Amino acid sequence: MRTLTLTLLLATVLVAAAKSKGGSRTTLGYRECKDIKDDYRNIKEKGMKWVKPKPLSAICGVDGECPDVEELANGHCGFGIRELAAGKWVSTELDESDGDQKYNRAFMRLFSYISGTGNDQGVNIPMTSPVVTQTNLDENYQQNGGSMHFYIPTEFQENPPNPTNEDVEIEDWDDVIVYYRAFGYKGLYVSPEVWKREFGHLARSIVAAGLSSDWSRAITGTFTQPGVSDQRHEAMFVARGHYSYYYEPSEYSWNDARGYKECKRYPNTVKPKAVESACGNYAQCPAVEDMASNGCGYGTRDIKAGSWASTDILASDGDDRYVSAFMRLFNYIRGENEDSQEIEMTIPVITKSYLDENYEEKKATMHFYLPPEFHENPPAPTDDLVEIEEWVDTVVFYRTVGDYDENSDVKALWEKEFTILVDVLEKAEESFYPYMAVTATFTRPGYGQQRHEAIFLQWDEEEEE
Question: pTM of this prediction?
Answer without folding.
Answer: 0.57
